[in-house]
Design a protein that fits this description.
heterodimer; A: alpha/beta; Rossmann fold; 10 helices; 12 strands; 28% strand; B: alpha/beta; eleven-stranded mixed β-sheet
Amino acid sequence: MSQTPKLLEIEDLHVSVDGQEILKGINLAIDAGEVHAIMGPNGSGKSTLSYTLSGREGYEVTRGAVRYLGRDLFAMEPHERAAAGIFLGFQYPVEIPGVSNMNFLRTAVNAIRKANGQEEMPAAEFLKLVREKARALEMDPEMLKRSVNVGFSGGEKKRNEMVQMAVLNPKLAILDETDSGLDIDALKEVSRGINAMRGPEHAILLITHYQRLLEYVVPDVVHVLVRGRIVTSGGKELAHELEREGYAAFTEAA
Amino acid sequence: MNLNAKAMLRSPRRRKDNDQAMQQTAEARYISAYRSQFDRLAGGDLPDWLRACRGAAMERFETLGLPTRKLEDWKYTNLAALARTAFAPAEPDTAAPVDLDDGFIPGLSGPRVVFANGLFDPKRSDLAGLPDGVTLLPLREALNTRADLVQQILDAESPDNGLRALNTALLADGFLLHVAANVAADAPITVVHATGDGFAERAAQLRHIVVLDDNARASLVEIFIGTGTESYWANPVRDLRCGAGACLETVTIIDEGAGAVHTGHSEVRLDREARSDQVALLIGGATVRHELRVAVAGEGAQANLAGACLGANGQSFTVFTELDHQVPHGRSNQVFRSVLDAGAHSAYQGRVVVRKGAQKTDASQANHNLLLDRSAEADTKPELEIYADDVKCAHGATVGELDGDMLFYLQSRGIDPDTARSILVEAFVGEVVEKIAHTHVRDKVADMVSGWMKRQGAAIT
């Protein structure tokens, strides 16, 4: 048996927000190279799970453990989690007036490199990398000069998340409703960005309400999250079943 | 928020109240200092007009006294230190050498006027290299050679300001900049006010006069630096006159010593189509007031005022502005921002007056405050007095903390919390910094902002 730790192991995770228990015992393991999808109705705890994993304040872990590459995830600050290779794609990317996308990304890249004992990336190399990733996602290079997400449409914000992900090259990408608010063309482009991340070194946790993203990014495993618990897991066909039957059957089961 | 108003919004202005014994004592000491020094002050040996002008100013000071917080315009500026100590006028023997290293802007060459411990420092000033049509003189010299200009300004004294009156009565030094019609003095002129040791309980009463004739241009960078922790008072007064179509840019960096009181006062007059862009950074000093009174006196003139206050423990900053729109088609824009750490205070009092007949005035003012600690305090008071009925006056004010969502977003990308806070603060202040047109000056101010953030970060941890 291999002793290599799983990339992510979630064990009996209970999380409360403002004293109310939202996650009621999540168990989940993700290996490098895998794409998992978590589907669930509104209020099932999907975003709570993504924020808990990325370390946002206000999410109180009352029971259970999460290990990331064998380390206690909750002993790590949000920026340390990012430096260790965790990326959160935001459902609502934040606007930051006065901070250019380019400077933001350069600061992030170099902070992560520094945390990993690497030298800063030379400016020319960085510029080339960002331009290349932006081009691959068909993002207008002018947008790199603008303030982070300020004045971006919903689709542009999500595309910007994908550019950031491509540049930061995480081991584990947690994508929180990355498909919400996208028209079909934007959905395809964003999906292309996600698929470009697939590979033996990368794991992806897709969190979504709808099945349609999974048409373009086909998951290895689908989990159904209802009322803070994973009620069933299966292959990609589970997503189709959900699309047909709705969440009602699972809601009753929970 | 837009306000198209026929009504006038006025706030009460109270006359000064003379019931404070301590204050009277202090004022008596200022008056006796004036009498004992009269002959030694600049112009003491000069024509009757100056003697008369200073005597009249002293009488005004005797009537007006030091401003107190009972006056609406001084509500947020605590000048108790001025009443406690009678700051003696600067004298040549107090002008100990001052370290000027931080007083200059890297990369910025060109003329410079240096004042050390309240007096003109000819050795370190360099008034050469100015284009034809540009006159830059120490005030003492200008009193002789350009009395016409100086007298005109000093005689046009506004009647209701005690500190300005005291400056006129005690004025020791300063400079005159005159730019002839159609001459562009685009290279910034650096004006350094440096205060070092040996200036404790002294006052610098400097008077600067800038006169731009029609279509002239000039750019000034004023720097106030104090290297010690002693208590001193800087009371600089500037009179800035822009003729028709003239254009004046100023950047004022107030980085006084930790024990300093700074009460800078500027009066700006803009003639037809003139333009004035003024940016200030208030960062050093115990009590700092930056007061700008702008008369939009010619049609189509515009004033753009901006400033940032960066305050830490015990510091108190006031930005006071008055935009007096006297004629139609004037424009004014104000952007002031404060970042305050534990125990710091700032106030913005911005009054926009649109006089009867000043139709089509477009005036906006925005004041935003960022509190880094719950013990910081920001007061903000935009005021409008509108007597015309076809105007656009916008104003907005906010007081808030760093945005938690923004901080988390930055941290989720690997940026540590201290750096994330710095990035957000620098971006917040950046809205002001980016208004500085000259690259070297802008870089200097940006460096001062990031240096300040580093010091605050170090203080927290």
